[in-house]
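Narrative of accomplishments. A recurring question from our advisory board has been how the design workflow behaves on a single, concrete structure rather than in aggregate. To address it, we present the structure tokens for one chain from the evaluation set, followed by the sequence designed for it. No filtering or post-editing was applied between the two.
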């Protein structure tokens, strides 16, 4: 056997290296796809709740500021809604193209059968000229309750004062 002929005959080296590389690439891709698919947690959904939102304590006297700008949430059924200080729920109110996040921290949990009253004149981050200070009879305010974690809408209602 001639040692020089063994090193000169390279006809089977290229296909073997090609097959080894293809197997390695396939294994790496399968591991990457598997880790991304199995690494995700279960899909989360927003709480499902049936809420009734109404205006309360609307004063008949236009000059009377007492009771203006309050809304009442009534939980009629479904999952509880959490309004704690580290809340995963935010309440947005819109009037005449101006939208504000209402301050709902410290209000606790709204369970089935519970009622909760919110002063619409308390804002979290005020960027406008207090749109709910001058509410009058006939104004319609759009109220949206949003689950922050899933970015899904829990409730969207128009409230007429």
């Amino acid at each position: 056997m001639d040692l020089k002929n063994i090193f000169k005959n390279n006809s089977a080296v290229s296909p073997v290296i090609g097959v080894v590389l293809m197997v390695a690439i396939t294994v790496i891709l399968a591991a990457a796809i598997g880790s991304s698919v199995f690494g995700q947690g279960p899909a989360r959904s927003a709480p499902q709740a049936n809420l009734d939102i109404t205006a309360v304590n609307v004063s008949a006297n236009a000059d009377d500021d007492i009771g203006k700008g309050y809304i009442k949430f009534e939980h009629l059924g479904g999952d509880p809604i959490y309004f704690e200080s580290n809340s995963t729920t935010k309440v947005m109110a819109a009037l005449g193209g101006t939208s504000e996040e209402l301050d709902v921290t410290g209000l606790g949990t709204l369970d089935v059968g519970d009622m909760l009253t919110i002063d619409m004149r308390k804002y979290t981050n005020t960027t406008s000229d207090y749109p709910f200070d001058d509410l009058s009879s006939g104004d319609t305010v759009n109220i949206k309750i949003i689950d922050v974690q899933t970015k899904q809408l829990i409730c969207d209602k128009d409230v007429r004062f």
